[in-house]
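We store sequence, tokenised fold; for instance:
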Amino acid sequence: MSILKVANIQKSYGRELVLNGVSFEINEPQIVALVGPNGSGKSTLLNILTNLLQADHGTVRILGKPNSDPKIFKEISFMQDNTVLYDYLTGYDHLQFIADIQSLPKERIIETARLIGIESYLHKKVKNYSLGMKQHLLLAMAIINQPKLLILDEPLNGLDPSSAIRVRELLLKLRKEGTTILLSSHNLGEIDRVTSSILFLKNGSLIKEDLSQLEETIYFISVDKTEKAKKMLLSCEIPIKVENNRLHISVKNHSLQQVIMLLIENGIKVVDIEKRIFGSEERYRQIYREKGMNDAVAYI
């Protein structure tokens, strides 16, 4: 049975077409990222998936049922931004409200708080929470019902590196236990660590990518005879570029050891090697460059 099936979703605000025939399907537990610049329609799409917003056209089915069927909300969760929190309530109050609606035992509140690591401020009012503390509470609210489908809107927003690592490990644990996760995030570095596929949203349409096909290791090699090295490697059918007097070599199809041995055998001295891994960030640059995006844009 399909976990999430989205078919030909269209949505406009006045004359502005935001989503133009968006379709995709998730058939097995995995982590899928939804990526795009601000204003690309990510939040609109997530709101439509969870029936908080009506599409102009198209259908959404979750676990084989229409997304308007109240029964599915026992098995899915949607983590929104912190505007859904109430300053005058405590973290415990928020979790208790959800537990009551979902008919969950009180023990589940403490269990979830411990899993996320919010026990120390669980009984404090939200108005005294930092941004990171609010994000932790939102995540606790999203997983308390142990959903089969978990939809997250910017789950890493406002988290320090330690907290981001903890959340990443939690997401991987949930996936391993059978939870399907669809997350929207600007943090492409973290996306590369947890996702199996990425949905890039551009001009109202989706571009789907398999992350395993995106990742590529590039070595920037400084040598004492750059031009000689370039000609020699090209003659060996090893793709290469030269920039700032350094060799740019992809080792997707050739090992670094093979390249180094060829250089040494041809009397070329290797001065320095820098390793970089290109994944979703590089693909992001390629996809959105048409909009005048500068390569120096920060994605976090």
Q: What stands out?
A: The CA atoms of residues 62 and 69 lie 9 Å apart.
